Amino acid sequence: MTRRDILTAVPTSFLADGRLDLEGSRAIFRYVAESGNEGAFVLGTTGEFPAVDDAEFAELVEAALADLAHAMRVVVHVGATSAFEAVRRVQIARRLGAREFAAVTPYYLPSSEAGLFAYFAAISEAVGDGQLYVYAYPARTGNPVSPELLARLAELPNVVGIKASELSLEQIAAYRAAVPADFVIYTGADRDLVAAGEVGAQGVVSGVSSVLPKPFRALAAAADSGDADAIARAQAAVDDVVSVIGGDMPRMKAAYRAMGVADGRCRMALDEPDAAALAEIDRVIATHR
């Protein structure tokens, strides 16, 4: 059977004045733990990692492991602008018990492929006997991971996979051709669980599934069944939810408020949904929860 992991990219909850809402974040973790998904991806883009300091990072990792690890894998994102900062976060998370990690490429300043390899090699050494996923998001970081570089990174002993965000199916296929068969490729495109699987991905890291996991579970089950009509219906449901919530953290948090999960806001400079968007969020919750 084709592997179709769904890893939930989990938002971080903040109070209206910007302070960390640890209890709200834990409420989201507990909600995600009941999703039936295979894993949680914490403190990534959806978790607003650039706006979280080391002390908050430690609090959130400790809470995530306490509230999620009994139900699913927990992948802790540690990527930063430098290897020094990323290694420090690996060390914090390892002390707390984390064993699966992901690291986005360095960002803001351009890096050569040699510089990117050195960055991931340093993080790999810090991860030790854990597992590390490369996180390629060139639309946000400005630093792409070529298939040739990925093939080199796959030779590091604990680099086991990649999360590829805002990359085309053709680019995912190129990654698949460059790495061993057991190297894991996750797409960051919420709606592409099936489509990316057809070109060699083993699953999706989805922020939207943190809010409404049911359509994603149904799509995975339909794909496993091979029933074309069931796949089409399930894909339409996923597309509906993604079109309304997408990779928009304020909309995710508005949905949590509507469902009574957590009353959090974003810390980063993101626009809150307007009345029309809130009405659509209410609609998809009523339809797909």
What does the model show?
Keywords: Lyase. This protein has 289 residues and is of the alpha/beta class. Helix content is 47%, strand content 14%. An eight-stranded parallel β-barrel has the order 1-2-3-4-5-6-7-8, surrounded by six helices. α2 (54-68) runs parallel beside α3 and α10 (228-245) runs antiparallel to α12. The radius of gyration is 18 Å and the shape is globular.
Q: In CATH terms, what is the architecture?
A: Alpha-Beta Barrel
| CATH third-level topology | TIM Barrel
Strand content of the residues, in percent? 5-15%
Based on helices, strands and strand pairing, what is the structural class?
A: alpha/beta
Mean pLDDT equals 97
Report low-confidence residues grouped into runs of 5 or more.
Answer: none
Give the overall shape, derived from the CA principal axes: globular
* Alpha carbon gyration radius: 18 Å
Residue share in helix: 40-55%
Instruction: Tell how many strands the DSSP assignment holds.
Output: 8
Domains, number: 1
> Biggest sheet, in brief?
8 strands, parallel, barrel
Q: What is the number of helices?
A: 12
SSE sequence, one letter per element: EHEHEHEHEHHEHEHEHHHH
Keywords:
single chain; 289 residues; alpha/beta; TIM Barrel; eight-stranded parallel barrel; 12 helices; 8 strands
In short:
With about 290 residues, the protein is of the alpha/beta class. It contains twelve helices and eight strands.
Strand and helix layout:
Layout: E1 5-10, H1 22-33, E2 39-42, H2 54-68, E3 73-77, H3 83-96, E4 100-104, H4 113-127, E5 131-136, H5 138-141, H6 147-153, E6 159-164, H7 169-178, E7 184-187, H8 193-197, E8 203-206, H9 214-225, H10 228-245, H11 249-259, H12 275-288
Parallel strand pairs: 1-2, 1-8, 2-3, 3-4, 4-5, 5-6, 6-7, 7-8
